[in-house]
Amino acid sequence: MEREEQQSENSLHTVAIILLCCGAIKMLHLLGVITVEDKADDDLEMTMVCHRPEGLDQLEAQTNFSKRELQVLYRGFKNECPSGVVNEETFKQIYSQFFPHGDASTYAHFLFNAFDSAHTGSIKFEDFVTALSILLRGSVTEKLQWTFNLYDINRDGYINKEEMTDIVRAIYDMMGKYTYPVLKTDAPKQHVDAFFQKMDKNRDGVVTLDEFILSCQEDENIMRSLQLFENVI
């Protein structure tokens, strides 16, 4: 029974990471960055970039994208967001398109806050591309640290059970009732308890960044999920 609960918790955490990366990939598709067209069309696209972000060289140095990739990303970002910024309501509307059978609003709220690292109430291109660089091309530690910050809702440096419960419920809501036709009402609590059984190494009731990274690195499924989307662009 204990092994089944641990496998269930591992699966949920792996799914959460995959959903996080899938959301980023689907945003790229929506922005027109990922297409099935010939790469020869990229040169034409490059000539159509009317606005470039300030400090392109600086962004190239700060991210794992080339200048060419940044230009293409910016073109898509500006096409979808002409004002150059995305507020939370718009972000939720965009993200909800990816999960039509569920309610993604709560998870999108948490994700928006993670992208909005400066707490300005909006996501600029710099915020978007910095997070994308970590999720798609960052090191294992960088990806896990970003995910930890997503779960650390109140940003106090720890993940507590209330925060993890909110995240788990948001994931269930986003995936929709059709995904879990026999989901028990106490399932979120079971997942949270299993999460803390695995992650809370010193049993003090909270999970630190070091505990989170160590526990994830010990899980082969989580490690594989972090590598699934490294070469999408």
Tell me what the structure shows.
It is built from twelve helices and four strands, in the order ααααβααβααβααβαα. The strands form two sheets. A two-stranded antiparallel sheet has the order 1-2. A two-stranded antiparallel ribbon has the order 3-4. The model is unreliable at 1-10 and 33-52 (pLDDT under 50). Helix 1 (2-30) crosses helix 10, helix 8 (140-151) packs across helix 11 (209-217) and helix 9 (161-175) crosses helix 10. It has helices at 2-30, 41-47, 56-62, 67-80, 88-96, 105-115, 125-137, 140-151, 161-175, 187-199, 209-217, 220-225, and strands at residues 85-87, 122-124, 158-160, 206-208. It is mainly α and 233 residues long.
